[in-house]
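Hi R.,

Here's the chain you asked about this morning:
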Amino acid sequence: MTERKVTKTLKVRIRDKHAKALRDQAASVNFVWNYVNELSSRSIRERGTFLSAYDIQKYTGGAAKELGLHSHTVQEVSREYATRRKQFRRGRLAWRKSRGVRRSLGWVPFKSGAAKWKSGQVFFNGQHFQVWDSFGLSQYKFRSGCFNEDARGRWYFNVVVEVDAQPSAGEGAVGIDLGLKDVATCSDGAKLENGRFYRDLEDKLAIAQRAGKKRRVRSIHAKISNRRKDALHKFSRHLVDRHEEIYVGDVSPSKLAKTRMAKSVMDAGWGQLKTMLEYKCDHAGIVFKEVGEAYTTQTCSACGALPPQRPKGIAGLGIREWTCECGVTHDRDINAAKNILAAGHGRPAEGIS
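And here is the predicted structure, written out as tokens:
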């Protein structure tokens, strides 16, 4: 039996001595982006036509050598621009800035075959880049990817590779309710607490912000982000290894981020968790599905009723436990997770036996 192949993105940190060379390339990438941005805007304004990535390449051909870029990088900038313009449905996107306090973080994309592993280093655009190789990159064939910079000025090499799928040995199904008190609550009672990523750093962050220590602020934010990502990776991996079906509520973090709950929603990282679950389930060959979570909090998972004492609306957010008329006492979030699991199996939230 042939093993199933899946794609995976590997991310390794580049040594700081290469930062200047990468910043120079990133500045040239910004120049190409801004040129394409103006070109596309003029085409729409003067001709009424949207330029595709193929059309844009006619205007950027031969520019790579003059700008010190790989030809694949210029092509990828054009393709990415056309994709984002279509996604946001705008004739002109934001400019990429290479200087100033609001400068864009560095980004240098490339296509398959442009980057290679040579002499224990990443070889790209005629230069060798030393990395902290935590994955054993020599065993992979590089596909497309990019170099990117974080808020602290550190550079990373991101590359897509092909790996063997690792089937999950888990059994059974689980429903997941996403919330603010707890990031995720499972139908079997497992929970991922919100706030564990930053509570011990809040005071330090506040002091650094008041003192105007921008570098310190960026460092603390990065630590919080890394903690959040680590906790979500471990939680999602635990779920994928233990189950063969995973169902999660279809709550929209982007919509709730526009409300008064924005800070809590951003801290929770719902979008990250769902993305991790989706690709890990795909790699493991198990079911992942988002289901409608309407009335999952209010419906009794035991009898399917909507009793008068159920938690309702914003006023009911403080109700963490409630008892149904049938006599069953529910933890609010576990009850919702059980209803999400039932909905994933094709049964409506109301009328669950």
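One quick note: The two ends are 41 Å apart (CA to CA).

Cheers,
M.
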